[in-house]
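For reference, the entry.
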Amino acid sequence: MGLQKPAQSIDTNKEKMNWSVLLGAAFLMATSSIGPGFLTQTTVFTQSLTTSFGFIILISILLDIVAQLNVWRIIAVTEKRGQDIANLVLPGLGFLLSLLIVIGGLAFNIGNIAGAGLGFNVLFGVDPKWGAAISAIIAVIIFSVKEAGKAMDRFAQIAGVVMVVLMIYIAISTAPPAGTAFVKTFAPDKIDIFAIITLVGGSVGGYITFAGGHRLLEAGITGKKALPQVTRSSVTGILVTGVMRIALFLAVLGVVSQGLKINADNPAASVFQLAAGNVGYKIFGLVMWAAALTSVIGAAYTSVSFIRTFHESINRHYRKFIIGFIIISTLSFIIIGQPVKVLVIVGAINAFILPIALGTLLIAANKKRIVGDYKHPLWMTVLGIIVAVAMAAMSIYTVYNVFIK
């Protein structure tokens, strides 16, 4: 008779495996939001708002946490993907949500691939298109291995830690006025609502809203019993994004406070170079490449997860669809370059996805036929509605001013 593993050992192994997935989901969401746009946005807003930008970061982190807590929690309780929940709320709504996310994810992935190519160019001096192609091959390899989920989790974790450590190093190098920044975080001189909306949209907008929740669903971490784990994972992801944002904010602030001029053509790269010379410029290349490639992986994985349940063949061959998604994004960049106009238009569409998605899931959370006997916390519902309405209002305002006025 063979020896059996003690029950305690099995439970410990399962706990370790769950923690790895939870951490992977957190980093998948965090690194999906830390892309080329993240680096540029943070740099530009810090230049204009200086120490008061700390307040914008604080508010955006709080709004991000509200959005992610609601979305991840409802996905876990229903044990369904976002599009399936939306279809239960209103037949056809899930298809509309999927269409918006796939179009937005594909367009932004072209920008992410471009960012990966730029990072390669800074690091090794190769043509950005070759850098983009090499980066795409690495992403394809990750989804080609047998344990693609684990490979994706591990890559996101390693890349996330590397980016945060390098950003903290650059922030320290610029010797920013941290004390003043801390004070102004709670007592800002000026408040820019548009900056808050931009940061929230960039952190949890579009496909990013569902990246971690769908990953946990695939790994089987669902149900009311898993809610404490789901909550920890979602907050961890937001905090990783927040630490990265704060480190970059302090780095830019240090450069600005020294009176150094940031190059408007490539503001983020300029900050790294001014902070630490040529070494800083190479660090920018590595951070840009890691940020872009993890965003490529997150966008491809999450976008395809929105069509997996529409046909059994898609679900069975979903990794091939993810690889195809990456290849199409890469070829689009190599053949026609980064379509700026398309990105702007899809950016406006992307801004609508968070209020639509969050609003839909909040409705679902209060329907017994969808969540059974689960009671969604009232404070989460109220705060979620506030975030959804605020994002919708600012999205309409932006579209009106950019495309209509």
Observations:
- The domain at 23-404 is CATH 1.20.1740.10 (Amino acid/polyamine transporter I).
